[in-house]
Amino acid sequence: ETGVTQTPRHLVMGMTNKKSLKCEQHLGHNAMYWYKQSAKKPLELMFVYSLEERVENNSVPSRFSPECPNSSHLFLHLHTLQPEDSALYLCASSQDSAGLAGRAGELFFGEGSRLTVL
Amino acid sequence: QKEVEQNSGPLSVPEGAIASLNCTYSDRGSQSFFWYRQYSGKSPELIMFIYSNGDKEDGRFTAQLNKASQYVSLLIRDSQPSDSATYLCAVYNAGNNRKLIWGLGTSLAVNP
Lengths: 118, 112
Fold this sequence. Notes:
Oligomer: heterodimer
Number of strands of chain B: 11
Helix content of chain A: under 10%
Number of helices of chain A: 0
């Protein structure tokens, strides 16, 4: 139990569906992240929110839409996805998102949402 | 050139041996270095971080950093089958758009 909870753990959707991934952190952290993990690729940063403001949008297609209503909750809204979007989507949190001390690198991950797009 | 490079493995060691995992990085301005462990089907878990040149020990784990040579390593002493996992190296530079750059990971198998 890392203090970061993701739902659903598994999701299968068609290309025309709309679904959402949810993440909740109970660590009192100020920054939250969405990562995509695909086979044979490094972890890909998608979005970063710091104190509820989006501070990073890593050239992610608009079919992925993040939402951060407060510092404890993060959503990833999905619509008209492609089969190549099938991957493990990881939510993470950290104490903060910047700083020379590198606290931004001390991430706590949720268990992930395994997405399959048919 | 990949920004963070790791040997994909699998690295196979017998139980009780020392496992040595290596990581090189290209950004000389990198300031913080992290090792994450990821069991199959699970999410990454932070096990070590190091900011200064030299060694940092935590239980059976030792992280070693050499900024001049741009490499960071993780030693696991008295390896156990439960250490079998993929180990991800990540490197952070506050000046590089504050991004954490990840390696592909090294798969470690500890054989009983």
